[in-house]
Design goal:
Number of helices: 3
Distance between the termini: 44 Å
Helix content: 10-25%
Shape: globular
Structural class: alpha+beta
């Protein structure tokens, strides 16, 4: 079964703007926020975001505030990951969410996906991300805090 080229990116963060990053098991040194594809085309984006947070971190999103940031990125799928998608699929559309939690939470990693996690100040987290869309989303978090 092929992955759908529609995904969510969830920036999990504390009130102090510490951001949770996960290190990919398939790509050591690649750090990212929670991400994942929709399971089916009619799956609500909010449902996919909450599901991915729970699957990848063990954090129950109902204990925080999950919000859609009304940011959408379209990017080319890296060649090494295209085999996961239907033949001819070159682009993915990613919808950005934030999950605000009061304080750092213990994380239970999905070992097939991630090998480590860190809570970092938002600017350090953005600098560590390999993905430009993830970096931009975390910068939005910092900008929102300055404007608040």
């Amino acid at each position: 079964m092929y992955k759908l080229p529609v995904s969510v990116l969830v920036v999990v963060h504390t009130a102090q703007l510490e951001v949770l990053l996960l290190e990919r098991s398939s790509r050591p040194g690649y750090w990212q926020s929670v991400t994942g594809s929709l399971d089916r085309l009619d799956e609500p984006l909010e449902t996919a975001a909450a599901r991915e947070v729970m699957e990848e971190t063990g954090i129950d999103p109902s204990g925080g505030r999950l919000a859609r940031w009304n940011a959408v990125y379209r990017f080319e799928i890296y060649a090494q990951w295209r085999h996961r998608f239907a033949p001819g699929t070159l682009y993915n559309t990613e919808h950005v969410f934030g999950l605000a939690v009061r304080e750092r939470r213990a994380v239970k990693l999905a070992p097939r996906e991630h090998v480590a996690y860190e809570w970092l100040a938002w600017d350090r987290a953005a600098a560590r991300c390999f993905s430009w869309s993830n970096r931009d989303a975390i910068h939005m978090l910092g900008e929102r805090a300055v404007l608040a």
